[in-house]
Amino acid sequence: xxxxxxxxxxxxxxxxxxxxxxxxxxxxxxxxxxxxxxxxxxxxxxxxxxxxxxxxxxxxxxxxxxxxxxxxxxxxxxxxxxxxxxxxxxxxxxxxxxxxxxxxxxxxxxxxxxxxxxxxxxxxxxxxxxxxxxxxxxxxxxxxxxxxxxxxxxxxxxxxxxxxxxxxxxxxxxxxxxxxxxxxxxxxxxxxxxxxxxxxxxxxxxxxxxxxxxxxxxxxxxxxxxxxxxxxxxxxxxxxxxxxxxxxxxxxxxxxxxxxxxxxxxxxxxxxxxxxxxxxxxxxxxxxxxxxxxxxxxxxxxxxxxxxxxxxxxxxxxxxxxxxxxxxxxxxxxxxxxxx
Length: 340
Ligand SMILES: NCC(=O)CCC(=O)O
Ligand SMILES: [Zn+2]
Ligand SMILES: [Zn+2]
Known about the structure:
Layout: H1 7-11, H2 21-27, E1 38-44, E2 51-53, E3 61-63, H3 65-77, E4 82-87, H4 107-118, E5 123-128, H5 150-167, E6 171-174, H6 181-191, E7 199-206, H7 213-219, H8 238-251, E8 255-259, H9 265-274, E9 280-284, H10 286-297, H11 303-316, E10 321-324, H12 327-335
Parallel strand pairs: 1-3, 1-4, 1-10, 4-5, 5-6, 6-7, 7-8, 8-9, 9-10
Antiparallel strand pairs: 2-3
The structure holds 5-azanyl-4-oxidanylidene-pentanoic acid and zinc ion (2 copies).
The site of one zinc ion has 2 residues, from loops.
GO biological process, one term: heme biosynthetic process
Pfam families: ALAD
GO molecular function: porphobilinogen synthase activity; zinc ion binding
């Protein structure tokens, strides 16, 4: 005889919602990962024909433009729709104003027209920051005492953003965390009639994190002295993250970002809930990449199930787009139509 369950008891039966894959999919549609949910960060170097593996990020390399095009072609065939470009210089000199961030020799400025022509469907975002180009390695212009000169910094950042936009960037992404940079860039784009065809992706809540270590090696952007705690956010501060989002929205940001990802899921959720009108980006940073890579390599966890779980958690917390060095492998999984 059937057991008679009360209405309340029936409500609490969960297994009947997840007994096959289709039913499980219905429970998780908002956390699906498609190629549109991924943005791939790439490093462009001065020598057009070289490839430099990055030792702190096994599997990730810096590319000259000719090699980068070969690297991107198959990924675009698998659905890659956007990249985030970083320039790295070795021979060009660095100076206190980061002159080579927007000189005609800058590898990003040189690469943009060629990327636009080679990949007409690819959306190209450019990281805008001074740190890879300054002799002191800080993200802004400094006063003689080493503190940030904010007005001079946002003037430089505006000039650099406009130069990348003129060279063909669809999106400029300021990562410096200077006050007023979004408004300054928007002003610069307007002055050059670019406002309607270039978006600003704001690194809205960028925390002073221990997870950027491998990136500083990758981008050769280690500060020569001190740290970035006077402009990046303290890891415990929800208040500053929400104020930063409010500031960037008020200044006209088109998209918002939280960075890093895994340690800041609560921040992302709050920013997304406060500003649901804005696409939310999350940056799964170099240390998060290295952590999963090395743990899997050491046999501590299963690479695929751990990475899939992290990706889903980023989506669940509110990310529309995940910026990830793992993009090539995730595109493979998607293409094989296997669940990630
Ligand atoms: N402005 C870009 C970064 O700081 C990237 C950090 C990382 O991948 O560790
Ligand atoms: Zn920087
Ligand atoms: Zn940075």
